[in-house]
Amino acid sequence: MYLDACEDDSTSTGASFKTKDAIFVGKKESTRFRGLWKILSKYADISSLNGVPFIMQSRHCLVKVAWSLLLVGAVGASIFHLYYLFSNYFEYQKYSQVQLKFDSLKFPAVTICNVNMMRISQKRFASEEIQSLFQTEIKWNSSNKSLNNTTDSDLNKKAYELDNEEIQHIADDDDLVPDMSNPCLLEWVKDKERELCQHCSYCWDQGQLSNSSLYEIDDYFQYLFNKQSMDIRQQIGHQKEGLIRMCSFAGRMCGYELFQQVVSPQYGNCYTLHHENFTSRKSGIAGGLELILSLETDEYTPAITSDVGARVIIHEPGTAPFLDDNDIAVSPGMHTFIALKKVEIIRIGEPFSSCISESHTVLDYKYTKPVSQ
């Protein structure tokens, strides 16, 4: 009996120890919670964030809830506003700034072309296809002196008879302008040919000329002309010493030697004037360029060239002259005045746009929008 009593006492004593341990752990956790709450209370007292001190100091639960909702709403609005600001910033929005200045300017490049591609006196140096085309045209002109009473259909039947194999698609001809090895220039010629097919009632790959106007002869002659070598095209075209009779800039004489030759697929020999020392300091004829041109109309090819005059294009120095886009027609026997104002557009690059500043060396010209197209 004594032993049993001892065992009971030991058991009850261990249970009391376990209860004390649980009470000690509970007190420790309560102390930690009170310490954390005390830290938060001190932070709320010294915090400059609006609403936090009122949440901790308010005695009523509704007031605490109200201030808590206001605080959460304010934080949410701040986050939304920051998101809006950052999204606008990373969109890299652009704006335009326009300035009007009156100052001396570097004179632009001026390119002139005679609308007649080949001098009739030099046709003996042309290809056999061109010479046969001229012989056919001469026979047609001699047998048809009156054109008013003849339809286009009859004119085309009497003008020439060409085999279907003689006219091929320009883009598929490997011998087209063999000296134009530059792929960009060759693609540009192909695009012009495709534009020609869209606006005419025939296309080269049809193998024949349909019934249309006499302008089709000019198109076919242009095709044959561009098949020749660069040297032949330069030789049979109009020369600058014959085309440019007088040149003066700001009252000072400038010779035709300053003009550089450019061969155009549309007009043959063209000549570009650009000099580093040419600077426009005042407007008007006295401060600009004055030219007297000799069109040499006696050298025009009959029944081929349907117009008389010259084409003038004014472009930025170092850029390619695209005559079909911005050229100006100059008529013979008349004064032609051209006034310009310079518009310079400077675009910002990455990350605001896809513009690049690296120079392109594919062509010998500066990079411009028509070149890229």
TrEMBL record:
<keyword id="KW-0915">Sodium</keyword>
<protein>
    <submittedName>
        <fullName>Uncharacterized protein</fullName>
    </submittedName>
</protein>
<keyword id="KW-0472">Membrane</keyword>
<keyword id="KW-0739">Sodium transport</keyword>
<comment type="similarity">
    <text>Belongs to the amiloride-sensitive sodium channel (TC 1.A.6) family.</text>
</comment>
<dbReference type="InterPro" id="IPR001873">
    <property type="entry name" value="ENaC"/>
</dbReference>
<dbReference type="GO" id="GO:0005886">
    <property type="term" value="C:plasma membrane"/>
</dbReference>
<dbReference type="Pfam" id="PF00858">
    <property type="entry name" value="ASC"/>
</dbReference>
<feature type="transmembrane region" description="Helical">
    <location>
        <begin position="65"/>
        <end position="86"/>
    </location>
</feature>
<keyword id="KW-0894">Sodium channel</keyword>
<keyword id="KW-0407">Ion channel</keyword>
<keyword id="KW-0813">Transport</keyword>
<keyword id="KW-0406">Ion transport</keyword>
<keyword id="KW-1133">Transmembrane helix</keyword>
<dbReference type="GO" id="GO:0015280">
    <property type="term" value="F:ligand-gated sodium channel activity"/>
</dbReference>
<keyword id="KW-0812">Transmembrane</keyword>
